[in-house]
Amino acid sequence: MPELPEVEVVRRGLDAHVVGRRITSADLFGARVARRHPLGPLDLADRLASRVVSGAHRRGKYLWLALGDGAGEADEGLIVHLGMSGQMLVSDASSPAQRHLHARFRFADGGPELRFVDQRTFGGLALSPLRPDGLPLAVAHVARDPFDPEFDARLVARQIKARSSGIKRVLLDQRVVSGIGNIYADEALWRAGIHGERAASALTKPAIERLLGHARDVMQDALAQGGTSFDALYVNVNGASGYFDRSLAAYGQAGRPCQRCGAIMRREQFMNRSSTSCPRCQPRPRARRIP
Question: What does the alpha-carbon distance between residue 291 and residue 289 come to, in Å, rounded to a whole number?
Fold first, then answer.
């Protein structure tokens, strides 16, 4: 699933190609693309017609287009759930429909269309009212991410310190800190030399702040390389893949030497996924004794 860097790459593409344009029509193909919109695809398409895209925004992994009437402030957000394979593509109107095309947006200026393509159909579109601060109500539960100007690493470190769960599980909790998924959690933990099963409460607050800094740094590095693409499913709005997968030090590196110490990287089960870490740089925490 796309994480913060991949979603930010898409957001920047939408900002460059869609913001300031008026939607003349929206075609939604099938009910699944609008399953998060209670009134269904026809209602969603009708409500998008004649709306002006005033901004492309993101919090963590959540992406939305701010919509207004072109005269006042935006009052709704079109939330774009990319899911596992969703793509927002800027396409010439005369180009053939892509396979797995689920939505098509046409604009008053007659320029390139915006198309939502989703092979695995876990993604979708939905409208949500905007709060006065511009955040959609549907995204209000999501915590700030490390790129947010108002992100307070010291405050977040205190919140994390109060948790007894493993630190990786806490990093993935979008209500605590958003934008970090399995890939960048593994990378940040490797950079910090911390095993993901270590209890968050067992870490010092300075150590947690350093870990959050590593998470921001690794996502910044990924963003500079267009994100992480393992196949053709994650692309930017022009259809190009990112290439940070070539720079990964932990995620997907099981069986290879650690770039820091040379020990063979290990893969362990984590929730319904996996974690990759170095047995030497990131020793497993000792089992807790039962009184």
Answer: 6
Q: What is the mean pLDDT of the chain?
A: 93
From the list 158, 256, 273, 284, the catalytic residue is 273
273 is catalytic: yes
- Dist. CA 178–CA 142, nearest whole Å: 7
CATH number of 4-139: 3.20.190.10
Q: Which of 2, 5, 112, 146 is catalytic?
A: 2
Q: What sections of the chain are H helices per DSSP?
A: 4-17, 40-48, 153-161, 167-171, 182-192, 205-224
Q: In the chain, which segments carry CATH 1.10.8.50?
A: 153-277
181-223 per-position pLDDT tens digit: 999 999 999 999 999 999 999 999 999 999 999 999 999 999 8
Q: Which of 51, 58, 59, 61 is catalytic?
A: 61
Of the residues 3, 6, 113, 187, which is catalytic?
Answer: 3
Residue ranges, CATH 3.20.190.10, the chain:
4-139
pLDDT tier, 290 (very low <50, low <70, confident <90, very high otherwise): very low
Report the candidate in 24, 76, 20, 77 with the shortest Cα–Cα distance to residue 53: 20
Give the pLDDT band (50/70/90) at residue 291.
Answer: very low
Catalytic residue status for 58:
no
161 is catalytic: no
Q: State yes or no: is 6 an active-site residue.
A: no
C-alpha 142/C-alpha 207 separation (Å) is 24
Which residue type is seen at 71?
A: A
Confidence of residue 43 (pLDDT cuts 50, 70, 90): very high
Helix (H, G, I), strand (E, B) or coil at 56: strand
**Domain 153-277 is of which CATH architecture?**
Orthogonal Bundle (1.10)
Query: pLDDT tens across 233-284, in order?
Result: 555 677 777 757 778 999 999 999 999 999 999 999 998 889 999 999 999 9
